[in-house]
Amino acid sequence: MSRNLLPRGDEPLPATLTFVFILGTLIVIGWFGMFALLQARW
Amino acid sequence: MHVHKAEKIWIAFGVAMLAVFLATITTAAVVEGFVPPSHIQSIDPAKVAQTPPFDKPGLHKLADGAYEAYYVAHIFAFEPQHLTVPVGSKVTFYVTSTDVVHGFSIPETGVNTMVEPGWVSTVSHVFSKRGTYLLVCNEYCGVAHQTMAGSVEVK
Amino acid sequence: MLAGRIDVPSDFAIRFSVAKENLLVLAHIYTATAALTLGALFGLLQGFARANWIVMPAEFDYYRVLTAHGVLMALVFTTFFITGLLTFATYRSIPRVRSVRLGWIGYSVMLFGTVMATIAIVSGNATVLYTFYAPLKAHPSFYFGATLLIAGTWFIAADIFLNVAWWMKNNAKTRIPLPAFLAATTFVMWIIATLGVVLEMLLLIPWSLGWTSGIDVGLTRMLFWYFGHPLVYFWIMGAYLIWYTVVPTTYKGTVFSDSLTRLSFIMLLLLSTPVGLHHQFLDPGISATWKWLHALNTYAVVIPSFMTAFAIFASFEIAARKQGKRGFLAVIRWLPWGNPVFSGPALGMLLFIFGGFGGIVNTSYSMDVLVHNTMWIVGHFHVTVGGPVALSFIGAAYGLVPALTGRKLFAPKLALVQTYVWFVGMLLMSTSMHIAGLLGSPRRTSDVTYFGAAGAQTWHPEMVTAAAGGALLFISILMFVIVAVGTRFRDEVADERPQFSFAPVDDAAAPTPPIFDKLVGWGVLAIGLAVLAYVGPIHDQLSQPHFLAPGMRTW
Known about the structure:
The complex is a heterotrimer of chains A (42), B (155) and C (555).
Chain A: H1 14-41
Chain B: H1 5-32, E1 58-63, E2 66-74, E3 77-79, E4 82-85, E5 90-97, E6 102-105, E7 112-115, E8 121-126, E9 131-136, E10 149-154
Parallel strand pairs in B: 2-5, 4-10
Antiparallel strand pairs in B: 1-2, 2-3, 5-8, 6-7, 9-10
Chain C: H1 12-50, H2 62-93, H3 101-122, H4 140-170, H5 178-208, H6 217-245, H7 258-271, H8 288-322, H9 328-334, H10 340-362, H11 375-405, H12 412-438, H13 459-488, H14 519-543
């Protein structure tokens, strides 16, 4: 049974956003670190 | 289908991030030649010893500071095992195998390629730092895979 | 505490069917556990050998052990656990009186093939590693055995598809129950993926029998990796099924979004196969353009994992808020870290941070020259298949085995500690492997000393750390076996049968678009994408002048 409540978008998810953006930031930093290594070794 | 606004933000960021990565490596490929070794040239693995340039493995000077190095990989050694090049030279390696799949890798440089019977691999490197570099086979080739190594001395 | 509630119908026929189903699922889980245990023993020996603490004898050398370890872990443990899990997920979410004959046929074929291939390996006639690259040539029984293992899984897939088809016929206009849908989607992907390796076997088997004299090295490698990448998504989809539908039951949570869960699996179905060339970035004979295309496709398949990361944490956050917990740290502290059915998968999620990052690096085209065939790759696949995949399977097993056997979990505190010991061990081992790889250490070697060469000096300390991590992992596996076996052989059947359930979908979720359930259509599209990604490379392989290679036994 599913009730059509307010669209889910109205429920804030700050902790989830914190989590995924920590992930994203780590990935970006790590990736460019590897790219710098590639430049150094190529 | 409903997508939470926060998820839209995250996925947009994720897609943008991956697009930046793709753009970076593509630009590096086009502008700086950062392309993984993708040489397409076949060779009969049974006739390597008679097929130039692999009939004379070793270093060949093209001009000052530019060399070609022809390597034959087989269980469990590289021929030539040792190479000496002047510092600052660009060396283009050509490698093939007479038996099974091997790897050709100089640790801590960008020299890394698969070596397959039936195909010629090629990879170039400018040796700008003096030292003795290890050359290792990094693909399992048999019982003595861990002994298959050589060296490149940069003077 | 473990799991939630399942409404077992009072109808005797269904209860009897459930009892038969439980036996079948248990067979898969116990076979997987046996493979994991033997594989772990071999892994321990490898770690000690590479740290130069022991030397493997010539009669049972390192590479034979490595082949056994790779096959048992990456092809046997994983496959049997997933076939058991997906069978369970389908059976339980589609309760009916059913025949388990097809399931048992599938299991038997899988087991027979596994035993055949394992004997070939352990007897030293198939020291070709789990990738069995030509022209290394194993005894025919190795290839036959592996083919039978794959063929057996097709029977399991057929069983799941028949059950889903039964549901759709008797419940038109209702979406397929989520666990069964995820199981079926995973198997559609698996069928498409295994076509590649079966095609490869059709070339390898006559060659191993001596009916053909040469083998196309490039073509067989390409067919293997057509299969080899979706293989890891087969594993990950099993783990994701647990994350989406089982883990929330440990904190009275819900599935964040039924539609997005289905969508993520559909995307994995579509995008897992058109990416295999990223395992062949450094191969000669394949154009840089095709390699770039597969790099692009691999970036695309990261998206459903990004979706999953969001959905899993959103499920945490929504459940936490219902109990008054707000904020990132509060949510994390509130989660049931004391329940092994949670801690297994959750610690696996933490390890997947490293695994996912590493995967993005590995697929970044030219960046692969830094890591290909180094210990970085070994670290990568250990922190993934030995991280989110294995830990999620183990955590789920702590809920499954009690429910299937009717006995309470044996030594639940040991089960909990087991997950943390695994986490620490894997973190130590895979981190040191990643570092060794960046330092250039090659993989698949019995040791790393290279006769004392200066260029190899920095590798040995990492191997010592890896061996220590591996020892912790082995201890952890012994703990798991003690709990699993102890649970099965407890004298008392529990008064109240331990329950296992799947999480409900959140009340407020919008209805799922019916198009997501059109699995045949999505399967056809997936085949199309795989064909598009491979028609160019395969055409090039076949049309370029190339030479066949004779088989070799280099061990």
